[in-house]
């Protein structure tokens, strides 16, 4: 069965830029290094303030659910590893019921997609599986995913995720061009739309390979 601990170094590598030579350290040590570079607050990113991949909205939702009174940006920046890991597990990993997914690579692909794209990281894989696209992983979804040839399904998920990325980039360009009332220049697209994230997003997706991860 899939193990959440195996995806942690990958997430921290991409969310905080931890040097790949440190990724064999215990996960908690990797996180402490990641905290030094893991905070971001890009105005183009709809997620807003983010700490090691956890957005402000996700952090607030977790705090409300668990009765934490401080959900400030400062609390987000100072988040402990056990809190960060519990957010990944309860709000992402467990929603995919990934402990029940037999293939680790498949679990890596679908959980990371949900981590970056919310419900679409469930509904689009459900469409590939031919089950109801309700965004809820139940017994039928788990049975269907475990019945697949892991490599074939993994490849289908990765292909669909790349297409989804292209679609949301194009949508952001269309929104920007409607706002300015003309065709945007390439420079404007790279500055004011999701096109600025294209290389990083696709590098992340392509770094999830069948059998593990590829750190370039």
Which structural class do the helices and strands define? mainly alpha
- Percent of residues in helices comes to 55-70%
Global shape: globular
Would you identify the CATH H-level superfamily of the largest domain? Chitosanase, subunit A, domain 1
* CATH hierarchy class name of the largest domain: Mainly Alpha
User: Beta-strand level of the residues, as a percent range?
Assistant: under 5%
- Amino- and carboxy-terminal Cα gap: 27 Å
CATH fold group of the largest domain: Chitosanase, subunit A, domain 1
Rounded Rg:
18 Å
Q: Provide mean pLDDT, rounded.
A: 95
Write down the secondary-structure element order. Answer: HHEEEHHHHHHHHHEE
Contiguous low-pLDDT stretches (5 residues minimum) are none
The number of helices is: 11
What is the total domain count? Answer: 2
The count of DSSP E runs of length 2 or more, i.e. the number of strands, is: 5
Order of strands, main sheet, comes to 1-2-3
Overall CATH architecture of the largest domain: Up-down Bundle
Describe this structure in words.
It is a single chain. The two termini are 27 Å apart. The chain has helices at 8-16, 27-34, 56-66, 73-77, 81-93, 104-117, 120-129, 139-147, 150-180, 186-192, 198-207; strands at residues 39-40, 50-51, 54-55, 208-209, 212-213. The chain has a 3-stranded antiparallel β-sheet. Strands 4-5 form a two-stranded antiparallel sheet. Helix 1 (8-16) packs parallel to helix 2 (27-34). It is mainly alpha-helical and 216 residues long. It folds into 2 domains: 1-96, no CATH class; 102-216, Chitosanase, subunit A, domain 1, CATH 1.20.141.10. The longest helix has 31 residues, at 150-180.
């Amino acid at each position: 069965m899939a193990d959440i601990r195996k995806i942690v170094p990958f997430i921290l590598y991409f969310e905080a830029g931890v040097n790949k030579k440190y990724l064999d350290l215990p996960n908690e040590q990797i996180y402490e290094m990641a905290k030094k570079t893991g905070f971001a607050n890009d105005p183009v990113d709809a997620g807003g303030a983010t700490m090691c991949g956890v957005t402000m909205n996700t952090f607030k939702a977790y705090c409300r659910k668990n009765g934490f009174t401080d959900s400030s940006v400062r609390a987000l920046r100072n988040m402990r590893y056990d809190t960060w890991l519990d957010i990944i597990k309860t709000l992402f990993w467990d929603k995919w019921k990934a402990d029940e997914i037999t293939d680790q690579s498949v679990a890596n692909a679908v959980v990371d997609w949900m981590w970056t794209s919310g419900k679409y990281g469930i509904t689009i894989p459900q469409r590939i599986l031919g089950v109801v696209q309700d965004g809820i992983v139940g017994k039928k979804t788990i049975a269907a995913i475990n019945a697949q040839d892991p490599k074939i399904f993994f490849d289908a998920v990765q292909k669909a995720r790349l297409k989804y990325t292209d679609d949301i980039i194009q949508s952001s360009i269309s929104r920007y061009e409607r706002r300015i009332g003309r065709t945007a220049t390439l420079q404007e697209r790279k500055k004011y739309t999701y096109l600025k994230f294209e290389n990083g997003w696709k590098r992340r997706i392509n770094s999830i390979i069948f059998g593990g991860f590829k750190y370039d």
